[in-house]
Amino acid sequence: MNKVVKSAGSSAGVIIQWAEDHKLETCFERAEKLKPCPIGETGACCKVCHMGPCRLIGKNAEEEARGVCGATLSTVAARNMVRMIAAGTAAHSDHARDMAYTLLAASTGEAKDFMIKDVKKLYRVADILGIEFEGRPVNDVGKDVANTFLQDFGRQLGELNYCKRAPKKTQERWKKYGITPRGIDREVVEAMHRTAIGVDHDPDHLLSHGLRTALADGWGGCMISTDITDILFGTPKPIKAEASFGIFKEDEVNLIVHGHEPTLAEILVDVSSSQEMIDYAKTKGAKGINLGGMCCTANEVLMRHGIPTAGGFTNQELGIITGLIDAMTVDVQCIMPAIVDLSKKFHTKIITTSPKAHITGAVRVEYDEHHAKDIAKTIVKMAIDNYPNRKAEGSHVTEKFPLIGGFSHEYIEYMQGGRWRGSFRPLNDAIMAGRVRGVVGLAGCDNPRVPSTGLHKYLAVELIKNDVLIVSTGCGSAACGSAGYMTPETALELAGPGLREVCEAIGIPPILHLGACVDNSRILTIATAMAAEGGLSDEIAGMPAVGIAPEWMSEKAIAIGCYFAASGVPVIFGGESPVGASSEVTKIMTEVWMERFMGALHFEPDPEKMLEMTLNYIDAARERLKLRKYEPGKFGAERVLMDMAARREIKNAAVPHAGVGGINESEG
User: Fold this and answer.
1) Residues 6+ positions from 401 with CB-CB distance below 8 Å
2) Average pLDDT by consecutive 10-residue portion of the chain (668 residues)?
3) Are the C-beta atoms of residues 142 and 116 closer than 8 Å to each other?
4) Which CATH topology does 73-233 take?
5) End-to-end alpha carbon distance in the chain
6) pTM for this one?
7) 245-389 has which fold?
């Protein structure tokens, strides 16, 4: 009998086997033991009141089944979906609220350990918000930007400030169907109210508000958080890093940041590299301090500092099982409480830092941005003091892979021509000519119910082989990085001829790491810029672009998928549908949303079918836009693809963009 593959990561597989040999339980074993409830899995269970839970099952359940109150299966499935959207939006947006308060505290001088690092990004955001910035003190502008963002959370009337960033046609679609978001908190609260017992019972009406709530996430919470993080810590640009479990060092203190909030992690970067802390580590027998990351906190510090990542969601227990982590700080979202009990079998200290998230049995060091550096020093010293307690046992794997991260909206624009000629024209041209078939956002979690990271890896390889440029975030980025797919050499080895040519000319990987899961908002602004550039669709809808979350597990992923669908992007999620029990709800989310917004949300467990659907969507969009039919290796002759040398020859000439160009040395 063949052994079940639990993770597609080679190092992860070694550690899982070591854990099984030593009778250690992980999420992979729990996933085997605890099967999904077949009723709840398809959205057929209602538990919003104490007359239930009601199970709406049977041969003709959709037509005949009713809850005690009389709610139909379609109503129940729609309510369940909207509640997932509300929870995901709340998670991202609560994160954004904290970032706004940190920007405010930094601007007023109350958070002395933080300052505005990217003034240019601050001014760009101020301009979008209609805030005067020329001739004013930077911190005064920062205060106004922070306060304007904070108003978006409690806004009762009107619309979110960032709605105006969407293409006009996209905004018109939202207004036509009544889904333009007002205030972030208002949409979440209304979603919870509408889905309570005895309120909204029309599936289409429910799901329309779900889209409005999701848009409050994408064009509100996520976008606000991304921009503030750039303002405070710097807008990312390409940087080298490493991924997988080999990042842990046997002769250094290994301190790992895990979760989703970047503020404490940023200070830990500074403190852990200080001479004071390094000298202290040496007194305990260590050669130095090795800061690493997991999940999206890892992505935040990777994008700006090149801090290595040990991977995504399913790797957190496995990292502890290496026996090499001296301390792991955890803040919010995607933290497995199981890591606390597991850590006691080794020497690792689990340190919870968020006022919102306690885990019984963990060490508690509550974070406060007003005393960030002092708190960071306390945490680093705890890790150092624990280094002598490290035991010999553990699965000490050494495999790691290089990667290039840091592809912000601003850098992608810059890399297509430099400081003075940067735009999205070259990318649009490459798509029109057929060098790039289309673009896919490969994102979402990794999941122990499938061969973890395996679907990401399969789709990444097949898509770039078919000349599809990939932009990735979150655990999707961690999966691709830990497989070694995020280097320019990957284009030479795996990409199709057109994508390879584009990547060679610019010197980029075929998979662009855009950051954490909140940074999916970068994809929205990139798509908007491509629409404004012309030559393709004049709105996000209709672009040869698809979103894929092949191993999703979090409610945040549902919110992300829905805000992309509402913005005009077809989205494909892996696994069984959480509304699969209702054909009506499924039709609304696929056919009706496609008719209204040219976006849709599909669920498909078969990765080969996911690939087929993706390429079909891209090719249909190309045909609808009357672009050159995609044929591998056959490109339009009307434009010339220019490499770096050719770019340098014309660097002083005022010429129009011609294909995809490199970056001039004189431009940065």
Assistant:
1) 242, 243, 244, 481, 482, 483, 484
2) 70 94 96 94 96 94 94 98 98 97 98 98 98 97 98 96 98 98 98 98 98 98 98 98 97 98 97 98 98 97 98 97 97 97 97 97 97 98 98 88 97 84 89 97 95 96 98 97 96 96 94 97 97 95 98 97 98 97 98 98 98 98 95 68 47 38 32
3) yes
4) Substrate Binding Domain Of Dnak; Chain:A; Domain 2 (1.20.1270)
5) 57
6) 0.93
7) Rossmann fold (3.40.50)
